């Protein structure tokens, strides 16, 4: 009989956070219940609250995790070559992790909550600054890069780009303008 492997508190917290990203990507901040996150993580709902305090704090942790992953992908792309074109060509790595983009979109819509809004504005500003710092782009070039990224993010949410896209003519035309397969 195989014994069950016990996870450390950090490993269990990381599992809960991954489950939170999955749940929040599917249902957003308002539509997600902590008991759903607990079920996905295989823990009790009180344990989720013990780890993160409140649903809001768990959502903030999910936003922080998502933004850190986006920044990591941009840093890795810039290590290949520190220019906007290289960061753009690596956007498919973000599209391969659609939960990141969905949590990002949900975080924007939850920004009416002052605490969430402060976090989201700070994290998006960090992404903006990182792109400028990594590439030396002007504010206008960075705006255009992030605008294109937001269009791709919205298209990902509509499931017309990314894993198993729904083929629609207008979307395919736009995707071709980005040089993405």
UniProtKB/TrEMBL annotation:
Keyword RNA-binding: no
Coiled coil location: none
Keywords on record: DNA-binding
InterPro entries, per database record: Homeodomain-like_sf, HTH-type_TetR-like_transc_reg, HTH_TetR
Keyword DNA-binding: yes
Annotated HTH tetR-type domain residues: 10-70
Name of the protein described by the UniProt record: TetR family transcriptional regulator
Species for this entry: Kribbella hippodromi
UniProt DNA-binding region: 33-52
